[in-house]
Amino acid sequence: MSELKTPPSGGAKAAAATADYLDQRTGVGNAVKFFARKVFPDHWSFFLGEIALYSFVTLLVSGVFLTMFFVPSMAETHYPDDGVWATMRGVEMSEAFKSTLDLSFEVRGGLLMRQIHHWAALIFMASIVVHMMRVFFTGAFRKPREINWVVGFVLLILGLAAGFSGYSLPDDVLSGNGLRITDGVVKAIPIIGSYLSYFIFGGEFPGTDLIPRLFTVHILLVPGLILALIGLHLFLMVMHKHTQFPGSGRTNSNVVGYPALPVYAGKLLFNFFVVFGVIALMAGTMSINPVWNYGPYDPSPVSAGAQPDWYMLFLEGALRLMPGGAEFMIGDFTVPLNVIIPAMVVPGVLFTLLAAYPFIESFATGDTSEHHLLDRPRNRPFRTAFGTSLLMAFFILVLAGSNDLIATHFHLSINDITWVFRVLLFVGPWLTFVVTKRICLGLQRKDRELVLHGHETGRIVRFASGEYIEVHKPLDAHERWLRVQHEAVRPLEIEPAEDSRGVRRKGYRKDRVRQRLSQVFYEDRVEPVTPAELAAAHAAHGHAPAEVGPGHDDHAVAAITAGGGTQHGVPEGETVPDGRNR
């Protein structure tokens, strides 16, 4: 008996006709098929990049609302005598500051939108930094993703520009102090500093043109560049396929995870609402940037405890730590090193090292192969130690930017605090590097010990001879693979400086520099366990060959190839983690 089929509804027919129309004219069906079959790995750390994307979408939505009511003008006006905020009545201010007050107190939902926008900006920058650190420590920047790392770095710089330009728009005392510092830094540039300041501010600081210019930069120029680079960033990620953490069944040629449609699309939508909900909750319960307490900008006063948002605080800290009087004359021009070094040299060094690191590491290793499996940070001691030392320098500068608040809250001498931070800026990163590197090497030795001897069980066995030993539980294939699959990177070996005829070899100097750099990177290392070492360890413990790994001996040997450079399947008897391979 044949089943009766329900005829499609009118809506279904219209949807099918629309889809067919678009597919025939745009080929969208192929794109849908491609993304439906695209597999993405699943790990909580990948959510960090999503937070940056969702917070930027929140910035765009809230920013459109704010743009409708904000007046980007430095024209002078007065707050009305019957205004909502009593302390501001009759006070002279700019149109920008007045519109900010009106947006906060007169526009329905305006204050909530202002705070959503500000909190989203802070979270946007924080998620970019944490996401870049995840990429850095796991080696996700290696070939073929060096360009994507540079794109992410440029996004970080553009985020700083967007945050600073938006932070200055209300034209209040706090943001005005930041602009005054900016003016001082610009004027510190020898020869062209004063001319550049006049160009930026439209005359002597503060001028009358800065707020409209910042408004254009904040809502048009920087967001447009960020949108373009986000698109490029996502395109490169899809083209190169997503990196994944090492594990059994995961190789450089496959991806273990879930398809984009419908699994990942549903997760992305859910995560967006979670991020937006958290930002909205923060905006509704935690006040931020109450400009009505600061008042309109006046170049004469400087409020105590004035600080920028956290992502610009390291520059403030660098300026506070630099001793005064470090300047000299070149003809009629003063070169103020007490401004140039902290405001230009220090951030320049930090950002240059961060941007160029993938290329430096590639030059040191001479590695030209593609990498789609991530590193465990412990297996790259130098990189992990270098990254933590950069973070330590950043944290010290951030704390130094709050030295006045630390002094008042803890009743300490601000001079003593400043000197402590000056010393820490040189000692802290070095000490962090040494400690982190030793921790990574120690963790590698622990992994090696586990592979050779297994987990301690606490069970003591006595032999007939009277000998006591502790019984160890051997690692299963998944645990063992995780600890031995990484490549053993060793310092480069180069050809001699002279050939057999005594002629100096061309390119020797460059090779020598690369060799020395690779020694810095990989001289201190712990080699992964080899099959021979594992067999000897099991023989010493009295294990039968079958106990080397579940299934067959050749599988166990394959799972711990020397150097870990070749990927292998999962031994018989083991199961692959949930997910689909592509």
UniProtKB/TrEMBL annotation:
Subcellular location: Cell membrane
Pfam families (UniProt xref): Cytochrom_B_N_2 (PF13631)
Swiss-Prot/TrEMBL catalytic activity: a quinol + 2 Fe(III)-[cytochrome c](out) = a quinone + 2 Fe(II)-[cytochrome c](out) + 2 H(+)(out)
Transmembrane segments: 51-71, 116-137, 149-169, 215-236, 268-288, 339-360, 381-399, 419-436
Biased composition (Low complexity): 538-549
Matching InterPro entries: Cyt_b/b6_C (IPR005798), Cyt_b/b6_N (IPR005797), Cytb/b6-like_sf (IPR027387), Di-haem_cyt_TM (IPR016174)
Swiss-Prot/TrEMBL keywords: Cell membrane, Electron transport, Heme, Iron, Membrane, Metal-binding, Respiratory chain, Translocase, Transmembrane, Transmembrane helix, Transport
GO cellular component: plasma membrane
Domain Cytochrome b/b6 C-terminal region profile: 247-442
Top-level division of the source organism's lineage: Bacteria
GO molecular function: metal ion binding; oxidoreductase activity; quinol-cytochrome-c reductase activity
GO annotation terms (biological process): respiratory electron transport chain
The EC number(s) this enzyme carries: 7.1.1.8
Tagged with keyword RNA-binding: no
Listed cofactors: heme
Record membrane topology: Multi-pass membrane protein
Classification via PANTHER family: CYTOCHROME B (PTHR19271)
Protein name: Cytochrome bc1 complex cytochrome b subunit
